[in-house]
Amino acid sequence: IEFDPCFAHIHYWGRGDHDWYRAMFEMLEELEIPVIQNVNVPIEPFENPSIVKNVYVSDYVKENFPSPTDAQVIYPGSDFGFFSARDLASYPDNCIGMVYRLDWDKVTPESIDVFIEVAKRMDKMKCLIVGDGELFPVYAEKVWQSGLTANFEFSGYISYYDLPRYYREMSIFVAPVRSESFGQVVPFAMSIGMPVVGYDVGALPEIIGTKDLLAPTGNVSRLADIIVDLLRDREKMARIAIHNQQRVRQLFSVEKMISDYARLYGEACGGSGPRSGRAASSREVQSSLPKRYKMLITLPDLEFGGGQIFAIRLANFLATMHEVYLYNARPHLWDERVISLIDSKVKLLHSSGLPYELRRYIVDLQIEVVNSHVWWADKLVFQAAAALPVQWAISMHGCYEAFIKHPEWDAAFFRIVPSLLARADKVLYIADKNLTILEHVGLPKLKAKFTKVYNGYCRKEDVAPQSREAMGINDDDFVFGIVSRGIPEKGWQEAIHATMMVNRSLRNGRRAHLILVGDSEYSQSLKAQFDGLAYIHFTGISSEPAEWIQMFDVGMLPSYFISESQPLAILEYLAYQKPVIATDVGQVREMLSVNGKSAGILIPLDAAGSPVDPKRLSHIMRSLLANDNGILDSLRSNTLEVFQKHDMEVCGNRYFNEMVA
Fold first, then answer.
1. Which of 98, 167, 174, 398 could form an S-S bond across to 192 if both were Cys, CB 3.0 to 4.6 Å?
2. Residue 79 pLDDT
3. CA-to-CA distance for 490 and 562, rounded, in angstroms?
């Protein structure tokens, strides 16, 4: 009563505390305070009229312990910064382990048997058992009777802060558990970078995303087979480790959990609560909806380009929570493959590219937030909405610097820009060089409305890779690749010449291949010039570059493009764990590093921004191909951690918060 909450959030564990919970729920019902109930273990939820939402920790618990109350799943989040990815080059191959309370509710007396079986098959195998409990004497006795005590280490209880050190000793995490609603020890292992195997129980298949690494419950021999087969296939273990690291950061991070709960809490409050001077009733919360903003995103055109593709991805993300419209500022420029990227939840408006039409849309659709990308869209929004009471955020992608050098591209640029920037409520930029426009128009005081926000990308798990075999690429060949617009400044020709130099130096039949994804008259001329080289592949434009990127061993962008800021291609390389070779342009240096770790090699450009020297590029390519001093493995192991700041969930939420502020 004193704090006047708009809801209460209760974590229900059941077990022996039913009377306490009953008294709590009845009191909240009497006070008409709605309740969000977390169901954290495999148990029937408490039923009470005050409960307006059940939050389960996994689909497994939700499906097996259903309730008529509205329900959703929010996965428990973990701090994966503490359980950071290890260097795959130093991956151990002789230790299996588990981290559990050794008690009856979690494991069984037979859980130790699979470790004993693997140790019998592989005499140098170390078995690391972290934890303690009433089953410890049973396990110790079984190990002693097997004669394998030298293969086992029982750590007992250890502190949370020591956990990463023990995890890093393991090659494979084994989960021979009795039940699992959602155990954080498994995501910890996945984040460190290792396969997880176990019995097919509870939420384990849901957490690791496959049943291929799980055995029927209690089938010790089958689980031992899975472990031994993995230990003998180091490459497969590395692939699984990288997949696991990506999966946990997308689904089980503390940032994802906070975002999900923030959205749920917003729904629960529904505009009532402390601010209104009273608590919201259960009925009010059930009928309340989160605020859905009406948002209009304008693009310069619907052709392939970094700014255009990012704007569409942002619209798709925002449309999961809000009413989002797209408008093409130059309707004569469009590509059906770009339009196909627009999610069905996003409404693409008919466009004539005229200010009065855009103004009518803003007024008639009651648009609350407008977000424009690239100069041509910014200009049209200014002409249409300068006098309208609508929140307007400009997204800079590097084109303003190009107009500074080439004002002839639009004679109105310098005349309009000062008023345009003064009218915008927010300017979201991605590279420090984007700020140079303020000095050129003499308005440094406007910097207060400029905010740096990273571009974002959401990795797609359902995009099948193209076939290396179909392209004549052997298993031991090395693939470099570029995804970009086919213009000279993206460095395609320099990359072709560098690849030719690399192949001249290779022996034993191994080849370096270069895949070029993109299209233009220029790229067609290159294709005609180099068509006789079987290791140079021109694919044309792809609406899903990931189908090609997954084939790469290394992604490249030897660009000297004047507008380069935060190239989306680099985000896609990182998302699919591809180390990067790129020029030190725009914000690429910042994109490729985090916490002192790097996922790529940078090539500096001279002051004039001249093309990359193919010979210098070829030296770097050869070094990665040969994996000199483990450099390729080291860079690859950092890609996921570097990518996290570019994840669309992080970027999209930041964008939204800035746009509506």
1. 167
2. 81
3. 10
